[in-house]
Design goal:
By secondary structure, the chain is α/β, with parallel strands linked by helices. It has 2 domains: about 190 residues, Rossmann fold (3-Layer(aba) Sandwich), CATH 3.40.50; about 140 residues, Nucleoside Triphosphate Pyrophosphohydrolase (Alpha-Beta Complex), CATH 3.90.79. It has 13 helices and 12 strands. Strands 6, 7, 8, 9, 10, 11 and 12 form a 7-stranded mixed β-sheet that branches. It has a 5-stranded parallel β-sheet with strand order 3-2-1-4-5, sandwiched between helices. It is globular. The termini are far apart.
Length: about 375
């Protein structure tokens, strides 16, 4: 006799929902048809608003609720998830969030739960690695997701819809929305229409145009460009960290580590010291900086920067000073200040690119 697969206890659905479109809703209903409960993992949570991540995870969760029937919504729980810049840690946090949402506090119960995984993430190599890591840590079975034959493949609509939203920012809002309406549930249409009248739309549209022009300038390069940058993580006494607020797009006004692009004729080390001095006015002898080094790491996730493929080398310095020395913003920074390390978790959604994750790597903020 053929073996009958045991019924699922729950389905886990992972997506970005930027914005929520009909393909996502079809995926949600597919997950709900497979199991009595669905845990929606909202990817790219806790990020600052950018053209790639214009909507907060709370806004996306609300859109999902409003796009389902009350009976369907009652069976759905939400788990916000950070960007997968560190895959093993990301998978551990997703697993724990899902188990908490299902009330599976006992590890034996968790191991015996029959959980299926539905992913609506983009079909990129980095996302395939996410699925492999998560399944390796959980044993969850992967369910098929051919759920939206009337739409282009699932990764495309979100990106295309965002492109349309920001490329037509100078048109009347109703006209811009009309070009997207075929792909959006009613709740998303109503939300986006109101959101376009709010404070974020014009700012992100301006940043989108800057990035479009930046990418166009490299379009004729014989190979896709790979950029090299440096960042400096400076702590003092183990209690404060030196941060700037960016003065230019992308990420204007967001918190960041002091840093910038590597010049052609300098080493990574000297580029780090130069950028640190230019943006914060903090200067020491080279001997003093070498004595203060506590670590160095390369951050190379393919999607860490909206500019394009960007590898950054971060040096961590810990100053022995009894109190943080004075700093003064200059060059590309609009502000520079010492921030208590204990405050960083509450500021996570104000950081540029992956800079919170760099801090997390060295200072273990999200453990």
């Amino acid at each position: 006799m053929p073996m009958i697969a045991p019924a699922l206890d729950a389905a886990v659905l992972i997506g970005r929902f930027q914005p929520l479109h009909h393909g996502h809703v079809a995926g949600l209903r597919h997950a709900l048809a497979e199991a009595p409960r669905c845990v929606v993992v909202i990817a790219s949570s806790y990020q600052a608003r950018t053209p790639r991540n214009p909507f907060t995870w709370e806004e996306r969760a609300q859109l999902i609720r409003h796009s389902l029937s009350p009976e369907e919504a009652a069976r759905v729980s939400f788990v916000p998830a950070r960007e997968p810049f560190h895959l093993p840690r990301w998978a551990r946090q997703v697993r724990q969030g899902v188990l908490n949402a299902l009330g599976l506090q006992d590890e034996k119960e968790a191991l015996h739960a029959n959980i299926g995984l539905v992913s609506l993430m983009e079909d990129l190599p980095s996302h395939e690695r996410m699925h492999i890591e998560l399944r390796a840590q959980t044993g969850w079975q992967l369910l098929p997701t051919s759920v939206a034959p009337s739409l282009p493949s699932l990764p495309t609509p979100g990106r295309m819809l965002r492109e349309h939203l920001f490329a037509n920012a100078e048109a009347l809002p109703d006209a811009t929305l009309a070009g997207m309406a075929h792909a959006l549930p009613d709740a998303t249409q109503q939300f986006v229409r109101t959101w376009m009248d709010g404070p974020h739309y014009a700012v992100l549209a301006e940043e989108w145009r800057m990035l479009r022009d930046y990418h166009a300038a490299w379009a004729d390069a014989p190979y896709p460009p790979v950029f090299v940058t440096v960042d400096a993580l400076v702590t003092c006494g183990g209690h404060h960290v030196l941060l700037i607020r960016r003065g230019q797009a992308p990420g204007k006004g967001l918190l960041a580590l002091p840093g910038g692009f590597l010049d052609v004729h300098e080493s990574l080390w000297h580029a780090t010291l130069r950028e640190l001095a230019e943006e914060t006015g903090l200067e020491r002898s080279e001997h003093a900086w070498r004595a203060a080094v506590r670590g160095m790491a390369v951050f190379d996730h393919p999607e860490r920067s909206q500019r394009g493929r960007t590898l950054t080398h971060c040096h961590w310095f810990d100053l022995p000073d009894a109190s943080p020395p004075p700093v003064e913003a200059a060059d590309d920074a609009m502000d520079a200040a010492w921030v208590p390390i204990r405050h960083l978790r509450a500021l996570e959604d104000q950081f540029h690119d992956d800079h919170f994750h760099i801090l997390d790597h060295f200072l273990n903020l999200s453990a």
